[in-house]
């Protein structure tokens, strides 16, 4: 496949799910909005997929095909002056791929670190082209390659064997037959789930439109190989944890595989359920990433995957370090919305679609690669869809009906001149949410905290709340409240929360933690 084609990235968007640097959060008391519907594939035979994908067929699989319409026209690519044309309706902006690695002393595959960079959601500015030794543009200027030892496209190699690092074990290569029966591959990430059998990838890897009859079809014979190593000498070492055949797949109904907007869609995210191998589950065998529900924004990310377009061949697990900023995507053919992740520290190449993007600061899974542009354009970039409400939130309830995904609860207390609340997550995802307090008459926020007041309402950032790891929010107050005065604290409500009564707590001066 031509390296000019765009790649696919992480898919997620949401409104009730919030991150400190994403779109503005809805009021904490607001009822969750309706969830977009999801489509499920017919039940598949995992054993058939395992039998089909022999080591030889795996080595011959091509990258998931992307439409030429997603490639920046030659006349629209930036030249040496660094000018970038503005995106027009129906035209994909010059996105870029994201995979650089600046580690701060960490090794690839170890838990990422780094912090989101706060700021407004502006679009990237122009970047001058840089010429290589042969006078041709290189994908990522040297000064912008954050990944230690990165190649011209921002990629670095993960250390082998991939079985040694948790991130490498939970990342794998996804093989499948596309809508026309062609052997293809993408990347995928094992996600924390109640069934312990789920992985996330890009929707365009699991559903597409046939070129023969122009009909939409699910991909078939899907098989996932965690920690795939095409350079291992022994066949067993190429698939150190075996081949896991898919049983069922889910995608947002809004992703149809038709039109250029679907290849730049906020709905380009899918969940794949694999079958068991004997009594073993996928998550129990290789571990899993914990998703951070978010709507995109500014982060420092570590990306992993298996690019297979030239100059790559899909045999190696590669990684990239990048800095992201907010980006938009299509919610429908005539409407673009914010809520995605964009980086130009890494360029997109086929086969990397569906690969995980991790928050370097927390190691949590932000989203998966969905789209971008490769190195033939000097405006290369990569875009991921986050684990947000419109994509992941629309899928996970159907894909894992027995899992608990967003059981946030809060309990407040007041002691002297200080008000506090403990926020707890009982689900399978992490969240970064605002905590909103309502103070009684006569009491107000005192200086010396990160909280903000608007009248009697005080809103405080809770940071990242992980499953089973409560977070305490506290701030000083001044003034005197009556003996029967009451305080109220609340956290946002999600449609995935099975017990919404504990999202709000009313307490008084006698309340204790």
CATH third-level topology of the largest domain:
Thrombin, subunit H
For the record, the CATH architecture of the largest domain stands as Beta Barrel
| End-to-end Cα distance | 60 Å
Please state the structural category: mainly beta
Show unreliable segments: 1-32, 67-133
Beta-strand portion reads: 25-35%
Q: Care to describe what's here?
A:
The protein has 6 helices and 28 strands. The chain has 513 residues and is mostly beta strands. The protein folds into 2 domains: 38-74 and 90-386, Thrombin, subunit H, CATH 2.40.10; 408-507, Immunoglobulin-like. The strands form 5 sheets. An 8-stranded antiparallel sheet has the order 3-14-13-17-18-19-16-15, with no helix packed on it. A hairpin with a 2-residue loop joins β24 (452-454) and β25 (457-465). It is elongated and about 75 Å long. Mean pLDDT is 80; it is low at 1-32 and 67-133.
Summarize this structure briefly:
The chain contains six helices and 28 strands. It folds into two domains: 334 residues, Thrombin, subunit H; 100 residues, ntegrin, alpha v. Chain A, domain 4 (Immunoglobulin-like, Sandwich).
SSE map:
Layout: E1 38-40, H1 46-52, H2 55-60, E2 62-63, E3 156-157, H3 166-169, E4 171-177, E5 183-190, E6 198-201, E7 207-209, E8 216-218, E9 220-226, H4 235-238, E10 244-252, E11 270-274, H5 282-286, E12 292-293, E13 300-305, E14 318-323, E15 325-332, E16 335-343, E17 356-359, E18 365-373, E19 381-386, H6 392-399, E20 408-415, E21 418-425, E22 430-438, E23 443-445, E24 452-454, E25 457-465, E26 471-479, E27 487-490, E28 504-507
Parallel strand pairs: 2-5, 12-22
Antiparallel strand pairs: 1-10, 3-14, 4-5, 4-9, 5-6, 6-11, 7-8, 9-10, 10-11, 13-14, 13-17, 15-16, 16-19, 17-18, 18-19, 20-21, 21-26, 22-25, 22-27, 23-26, 24-25, 27-28
């Amino acid at each position: 496949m031509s390296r000019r084609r765009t790649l696919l990235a992480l898919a997620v968007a949401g409104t009730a799910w919030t991150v400190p640097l994403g779109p503005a959060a809805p009021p904490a008391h607001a009822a969750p909005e309706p969830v977009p519907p999801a489509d499920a594939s017919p039940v598949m035979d995992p054993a058939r997929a395992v039998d089909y994908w022999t080591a030889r067929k795996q080595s011959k699989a091509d990258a998931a095909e992307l439409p030429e319409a997603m490639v920046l026209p030659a006349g629209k690519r930036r030249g040496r002056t660094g000018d970038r044309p503005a995106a027009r309706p129906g035209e994909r902006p010059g996105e870029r791929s994201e995979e650089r690695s600046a580690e701060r002393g960490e090794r690839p595959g170890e838990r990422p670190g780094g912090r989101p960079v706060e700021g407004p959601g502006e679009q990237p500015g122009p970047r001058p082209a840089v010429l290589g030794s042969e006078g041709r543009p290189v994908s990522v200027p040297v000064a912008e390659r954050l990944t230690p030892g990165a190649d011209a496209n921002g990629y670095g190699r993960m250390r082998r064997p991939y079985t040694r690092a948790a991130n490498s074990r939970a990342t794998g290569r996804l093989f499948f037959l596309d809508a026309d029966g062609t052997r293809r591959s993408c990347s995928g990430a094992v996600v924390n789930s109640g069934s312990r059998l789920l992985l996330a990838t890009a929707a365009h890897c699991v559903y597409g439109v046939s070129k023969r009859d122009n009909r939409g079809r699910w991909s078939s014979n899907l098989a996932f190989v965690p920690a795939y190593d095409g350079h291992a000498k022994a066949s067993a070492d190429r698939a150190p944890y075996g081949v896991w055949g898919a049983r069922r797949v889910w995608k947002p109904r809004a992703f149809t595989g038709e039109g250029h907007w679907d290849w730049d869609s906020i709905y380009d995210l899918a969940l794949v359920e694999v079958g068991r191998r004997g009594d073993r589950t996928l998550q129990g065998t290789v571990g899993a990433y914990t998703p951070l529900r978010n709507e995109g924004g500014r982060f420092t990310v570590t990306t992993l995957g298996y690019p297979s377009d030239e100059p790559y061949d899909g045999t190696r697990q590669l990684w990239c370090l990048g800095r992201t900023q907010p980006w938009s995507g299509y919610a429908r053919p005539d409407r673009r919305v914010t809520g995605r992740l964009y980086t130009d520290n890494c360029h997109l190449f086929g086969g990397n679609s569906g690969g995980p993007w991790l928050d370097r600061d927390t190691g949590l899974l932000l989203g998966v690669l969905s789209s971008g542009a490769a190195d033939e354009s000097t405006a290369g970039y990569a875009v991921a869809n986050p684990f947000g409400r419109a994509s992941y939130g629309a899928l996970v309830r159907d894909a894992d009906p027995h899992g608990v995904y967003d059981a946030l609860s809060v309990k407040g207390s007041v002691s002297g001149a200080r008000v506090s609340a403990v926020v707890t997550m009982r689900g399978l995802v992490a969240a970064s949410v605002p905590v909103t307090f309502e103070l009684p008459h006569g009491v107000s926020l005192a200086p010396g905290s990160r909280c903000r007041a608007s009248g009697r309402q005080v809103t405080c950032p809770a940071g990242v709340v992980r499953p089973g790891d409560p977070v305490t929010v506290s701030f000083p107050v001044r003034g005197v409240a009556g003996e029967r005065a009451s305080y109220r604290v609340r956290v946002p409500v999600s449609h995935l929360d099975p017990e919404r009564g504990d999202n709000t707590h009313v307490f008084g001066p006698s309340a204790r933690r």
